[in-house]
Design goal:
Radius of gyration of chain A: 19 Å
CATH superfamily of the largest domain in chain A: Pseudouridine synthase I, catalytic domain, C-terminal subdomain
Shape of chain A: globular
CATH architecture of the largest domain in chain A: 2-Layer Sandwich
Distance between the termini of chain A: 26 Å
CATH topology of the largest domain in chain A: Alpha-Beta Plaits
Structural class of chain A: alpha+beta
Oligomer: homodimer
Low-confidence stretches of chain A: none
Order of helices and strands of chain A: EHEEHEEEHEEEHHE
CATH class of the largest domain in chain A: Alpha Beta
Number of helices of chain A: 5
Largest interface: A-B, 22 and 22 residues
Number of domains of chain A: 2
Number of strands of chain A: 10
Helix content of chain A: 10-25%
Largest sheet of chain A: 10 strands, mixed
Mean pLDDT of chain A: 95
């Protein structure tokens, strides 16, 4: 008899090959599974809502795992954090129904992409922002970002290697704000294709540099042409903020 | 014939033994001197405005150095940043008078101390904040911080090892603000004793936890008694924001 437990996880992805267990380096999933094994003696597999890439961060990743042990789920953050490296923190643990699935039940996700926009790069923010040395036109970027909202075919917005059956996605909201030298772009959608947020961020950079028109997203949605979009922005600017369920994780 | 040059420097102090050249580990000063040597062939010594401790950060450290080379000072950020580790960035270089001294001419400094105030520690902010898991009384902390403003004898506010001739210091302003889970304390003064800002930050934490009264600073100023203050807060929450001269550095 086991209980399904939902974990909310924050991590600094700098030193990891990504969320998912893989051969070319340590993964967040692996570290959490190892800590669970040390804590409970059980060899378990955890499932995350988002398979973030190498270098990508999360402040609200959600995962589920089945545990037979007797540790109350609300004690798991304290118990696991004492075993985990300091760049991975469990923020919350709670019992959920046996049918709950962190990925398939996710109703939506919010990501954030941060751009450090100053002549010289930042020493302090180097792992958490992408650097753009030339001035960016924030207003043009915000107008372009707004054109993403709605249900569209985002076929042009994915890197090869994606496994999605359909490329229709709904973007609920986008937001762009400047905090000192940092531009913070937030996007909330029902789901995202492989590298979609980083392609959107790279396109926004190009719009901000006037290398692409403000209607670049609309054109790419209409034509399905990846070449109408900007480059895939680097991973370290990206952070998974939150996963939404019937009742929000966090 | 040499020119005196002023450098504005940002650094992530996590992996350094502090600003000043020393035996027990790499220092920021050493790294910048090494980059200058590689760039110009000259063995130079640079002087920083603030000798920040191990783990302490800066976004606006100021330093001066004498160079005989022909590289225009405004090109130094680009040239040095290509040689420096990515956790040290030169933001600005400018020619100054031969009498300019980064430390002795400093009219004031602004430091920032960041507290991450949430039950579980932060993975992303672990190198840039001190963690306080219990709820803090922001209002009491802000009221206590305000009592620091003015010219006082801060004899109680220093760690052993300080070399100051007088312990009179003037605090021009303090500010406390909450950004999500982060409490940001800013302090601007004419000069600071050894570990003074970290002792103030540790005392503010204790006031916020109701372990010390709101007039703890006043009592310690009046009596000179270090025991009336809180612990020295950990280094990673501290950042040197800015150094003020006749014309501000930055």
């Amino acid at each position: 008899m086991s209980d399904r437990v939902q974990l909310t996880i924050e991590y600094d992805g700098t030193h990891y090959a990504g969320w998912q267990r893989q051969l070319n380096g340590p993964s967040i999933q692996q570290e959490v599974e190892r800590a669970l094994h040390r804590l409970t003696g059980e060899r378990v597999s955890i499932t995350g809502a988002s398979r973030t890439d190498a270098g990508v961060h999360a402040v609200g990743q959600c995962a589920h795992v089945d545990l037979t042990g007797t540790i109350p789920p609300e004690r798991l953050p304290f118990a696991l954090n004492s075993l985990l490296p300091r760049d991975i923190r469990i923020l919350k643990g709670e019992r959920v129904g046996a049918a709950f699935h962190a990925r398939f039940n996710a109703r939506g996700k919010e990501y954030e992409y941060r751009i450090f926009n100053r002549r010289q790069p930042s020493a302090l923010r180097r792992h958490f922002t992408a650097h753009v040395p030339l001035p960016l036109d924030d207003a043009a970027m915000a107008r372009a970002a707004a054109t993403l909202v709605g249900t569209h075919d985002f076929a042009a917005f994915q890197a090869s290697g994606g496994t999605a059956k359909t490329t229709m996605r709904t973007i609920h909201a986008t937001h762009l704000t400047r905090q000192g030298d940092e531009l913070v772009f937030t996007i909330h959608g029902n789901a995202f294709l492989y590298n979609m947020v980083r392609i959107i961020a790279g396109t926004l950079m190009y719009v901000g540099l006037h290398k692409l028109p403000e209607d670049a997203f609309t054109q790419a949605i209409e034509t399905g042409d990846r070449l109408l979009l900007g480059p895939t922005a680097p991973p370290q600017g990206l952070c998974l903020n939150r996963v939404f369920y019937e009742a929000a994780c966090m």
